Amino acid sequence: MAFVPDLDTLENSSLNEEMFYGPDCLCPQKKPRLDLEVTSPRVGIQVTVTKGHPARTFRRAAVLVVAVTKFLKQPAHKDFADSDLGSFLDDLFEPISFQHIKGSYAGAPVFRYTRSQSFDILDIDHKCFVLESPTQLVALHLQGPSAGRKVKLNIALYRPRSSQGSPGAGRVPVALGIKGYQLYMSCVMSGAKPVLQLEEADVRRDIETVELTRFIFYRLDSPAEGTTRFESAAFPGWFVCTSLQPRQPVGITNAPDQVNIATYELSGR
């Protein structure tokens, strides 16, 4: 029968040794190392057996065994991670649901319409503009009764939005229409280069999309000569032009006044 150890002796003994009592030995004997004082470096708890009544001492020993077993089954310590913070906040605050709402917002117009003016137009070779077919504008010399065939330009004036800044001195955004018709010149890409055409449209309003920029030309005035040019806003460097030959379509060129005419006189406002 095992003898219950004296707790004072246990307390004074080495913490790294166990006192063993056999049935035939009343003296403590040293046995290979087995800690009676258990320390858990992770939880910082120290348990020491002290002197007491044998029955109570046995009960305390049993409690000690259960406590140590529970400590050993505790999960290993790990560092605090960002994911722990997320779950911690989820416990504190109610979840919030979000809805993804798609919408479109109208931006400032590219060009703001202001007013319209009508002019007679001649190129510097004194050719007039004539509408020969519903969508074909040509330039030719007119005299006598045939002078009534010439068309007037209905020039719509615009101003650029403030974010675009000023187009520069003598550069006024305009749309070139045929008076009496809902026809306006437009510059579009055809094949490898831009072309000039007439389109049925009403652009006497704000130009709000880049696509409609095909109707916009910059009016470049030369006050000293009393002449003007019309440069495409969609294709900078390309100008409305007429041919040196009569009865040829009004077109567009990037070599103004070389093999064509790109300078005009406006009158009859």
From TrEMBL:
SUPFAM superfamilies: Cytokine. Monomer. Keywords: Cytokine, Cytoplasm, Inflammatory response, Lysosome, Mitogen, Pyrogen, Secreted. The gene is IL1B. InterPro entries: IL-1_fam, IL-1_propep, IL1/FGF. Residues 1-94 form the Interleukin-1 propeptide domain. SMART domains: IL1. One of its GO terms (biological process) is positive regulation of cell division. Its main location: cytoplasm. This is Interleukin-1. It holds the Pfam family IL1. GO terms for molecular function: cytokine activity; interleukin-1 receptor binding. It is found in: Cytoplasm, Cytosol; Lysosome; Secreted, Extracellular exosome.
